[in-house]
Amino acid sequence: MNRQALGILQKSDINSLEIQLALQCAPFIGRLKPSNLFITGNRNLDGAVRLFEQAGFSYFVMLKTKLKTVFLLYDEGALGEYVSDGKAAFLLRKTGYYNLGLKELLKKCRLRYRQYASEGEGFPHELGIFLGYPIEDVAGFIENGGKNCLYAGYWKVYADLPAKLSVFKSYENAQLALLKMLWEGRSIREIICSGQVTEP
After folding, report:
1. CA-based, 20 to 30 A from 41: which of 52, 73, 143, 170?
2. Buried b vs exposed e over 79-100: b needs ≥16 C-beta within 10 Å?
3. Closest C-alpha among 16, 57, 1, 2 to residue 183
């Protein structure tokens, strides 16, 4: 996060749902990736669901504990296309996901994620596919057990570092642009409808 974004945050209500969405999900809101995880305290649950519906987000509850809820926010068309791409579909089959539609894939991933959270079973690293991470990096992470990466940013990079650094920069720019617009008094819904999450 750059200084300008930090400056805006210092003057903002960091606990507001819209600010948290900007911090956690700017690449998704800016249409730079097909999905994002969003974690919020359960006291904000009703407000979060209302905000998702107003903004037109598809959402899927991955995990709910006594204190927090983990949502997957996604663009159904973009994520469906991404997970059915040849390389993604191959890696999903390799990790036990066979010929399933998007909702069924998400349900299976959610089951594995919940088993990890409640029973300490192995983390479902294929979740990276559902987050729109590059397939070569998800595969590299799985093959290397999370070690030997070239760089750790929004995810661990195992190939084509210059391109990934450029992507990370675009994510930071989207976050700053979104924070600026929120600071100027625009709502997430207005920003989404205008399609104006652009680099500052």
Report:
1. 170
2. beebbeeeebbebbeebebeee
3. 16
Quick: pLDDT tens for 84-122. 989 999 999 999 998 779 999 999 999 999 999 998 878
Cβ atoms of residues 154 and 168 within 8 Å: yes
39: enclosing H helix or E strand: strand 35-41
The Cα–Cα gap between 182 and 184 comes to 5
pTM given for the model: 0.89
Per-residue CA distances from 36 to 11, 167, 190 (Å): 25, 15, 20
Asked if 78 and 36 count as a contact pair (C-beta separation under 8 A), the reply is no
Which of 58, 20, 76, 29 is closest to 189 using CA atoms? 29
Contacts of 12 (CB under 8 A, 6+ apart): 19, 179, 182, 183
* Measured distance between the N- and C-terminal CA atoms of the chain, rounded to whole angstroms: 14
